Amino acid sequence: MRIVTILVCCLLLPTAAGATAPGTYLAPEAFIARTFPSPPPAGVLWYDDSLRAALAEVLGHAPHGLRVRYWRDGERTAWILDEVGKDKPITLGVVVANSRIESLDVLVFRESRGWEIRHAFFTNQFRNARLDERRRLEPGIDGITGATLSVRAATRVAAAAIVLHERVMRQDTKLAANAG
Predict the structure, then answer these.
(1) Do 155 and 85 contact (CB within 8 A), yes or no?
(2) Quick one: which of 77, 82, 81, 80 has its CA closest to 102?
(3) Average pLDDT over residues 158-164
(4) What is the rounded distance in angstroms from the CA atom of residue 4 to the CA atom of residue 2?
(5) pLDDT for residue 179 is more than 70
(6) For the residues 91-107, what does the mean pLDDT come to?
(7) Is residue 31 a contact partner of residue 93, using CB atoms and an 8 Å limit?
């Protein structure tokens, strides 16, 4: 009986280790190609003080860097953003349309725990989420036991993508008004 138990454990161990391994689930280029059949050129949004403050509110910290790249086709924008879960960045792809999340995908996961956030049962919760008046996602996102920090990172990125989307849309409205 002991030998059978040891054999079963030896057979299951590689599967369990592989299931929790960090990795690239969707290359950023593939995410953009899937989002836009004819990918538009990347745009650049520079952080100013008001955008930094708005992002700090939803992220819980100031954004890193001076700018962020995005892709836009009409009223849809796509963002590839990194956010630390526990110790390492998680790269997520977020598509926003009309200030609502259209989709959220885990592109690269580097943490040792929390990889379950890559599955559709979790990411589908973000569809049609928007920011409420307190700048929190509505409806709320259900967590995953053992993946709390990864869930929080994904939720922060989703909120940040909406803030960024709204800024891009507002800038275009101002440009159109000034041109007319």
Answers:
(1) no
(2) 77
(3) 98
(4) 5
(5) no
(6) 98
(7) yes
CB atoms within 10 A of CB 47: 19
What are the backbone angles phi and psi of residue 60, rounded to the nearest 5°?
Answer: 85, 5
Q: Which residue bears the tokens 């036991």?
A: 145
The answer to whether 55 touches 163, Cβ cutoff 8 Å, is: yes
In terms of DSSP H, where are the helices of the chain? 2-19, 28-35, 49-59, 120-123, 148-179
Residue at 20: amino acid letter: T
The reported pLDDT for the residue numbered 113 is: 92
Query: Is pLDDT above 60 for 56?
Result: yes
**Residue 175 Cα distances to 57, 111, 121, 171, 172, angstroms:** 26, 41, 40, 6, 5
- DSSP letters spanning 64-80: SSSEEEEEEETTEEEEE
> Does residue 86 contact residue 22 with C-beta atoms inside 8 Å?
no
For residues 83 and 90, is the Cβ–Cβ distance under 8 A? yes
Largest CA distance in the chain: 82
